[in-house]
């Protein structure tokens, strides 16, 4: 009988260096991996009345599935077992490396389902990759939204407004099964990160893992759109890159309000000091460059979020739903 692969879940926000870390870990033959699988998300959400839109009415489906699993001899435990069996079998199918003992699943939005993963995979290890939320914000806007606020930012709203707090919470809850890695450490000392991960997983990595990482290929459509580029060097200049994002008074105001929304314990988990960030923002040089475009863009984004939430709640109310994103700026 095949020995089950032990899952490693790499949890991070998008634009946090997770593809680089995944490639570094994949240089060890005992770690199989594939491009972002997203495979566990449907299992985690299938019994939830929230967070999933479907034309068959998800809340009714969730109630029906609760009834189904309540009638099974194993009940809730049976649901967890069946979920685990299917996901593990998928990992085995993806693992071309037959000597692997681990399967690394790097799907950034797994920060939404960390509790589910911990329950379904009691043998799993977790790696939490942290990057400064303002760097994540600026990188997402620059990489995917042409350095503008627009309705399309809705596709990353959950990452920017809920993601930091959920990732911090998961890292605290699962500290006994997890390892924390900071983006700053990853790009300035990748060898040191590899050594720490090796100790955590009880594995030895090749001495030239950083060089070998550039040869690791990940197929599929998901993940970093720039993943095909060679990692000939790591981007130390990307640390603190948010300072170049503060171009005008509105962006400074926006980022101050954004960083101000996170509870103190979340910022402490990130190793950040709110007052220090606010002072940096106050000192950032600004001009009127793009001011009108940014104000118009954020209002289009607000309207998009409001209409989206209204569409997801048919018949409930014609009043604007409560929406963090609609209160911005």
- Quickly give the structural class: alpha/beta
Give the strand order, joined by hyphens, for the main sheet: 2-3-1-4-5
Strand residue percentage: 5-15%
- Could you give the count of β-strands? 5
Calculate the mean pLDDT score and round it.
88
The largest pleated sheet is described as: 5 strands, parallel
CATH superfamily: P-loop containing nucleotide triphosphate hydrolases
Count of alpha/pi helices:
14
Binned, the helix content reads 40-55%
CATH topology: Rossmann fold
Shape, principal axes of CA atoms: globular
Distance between the termini: 58 Å
Low-confidence spans: 227-233, 314-323
Count of distinct structural domains: 1
Taking Cα atoms only, what radius of gyration do you get, to the nearest Å?
A: 21 Å
What is the CATH class? Answer: Alpha Beta
- What's the helix-strand series? EHEHHHEHEHHEHHHHHHH
In CATH, the architecture is 3-Layer(aba) Sandwich
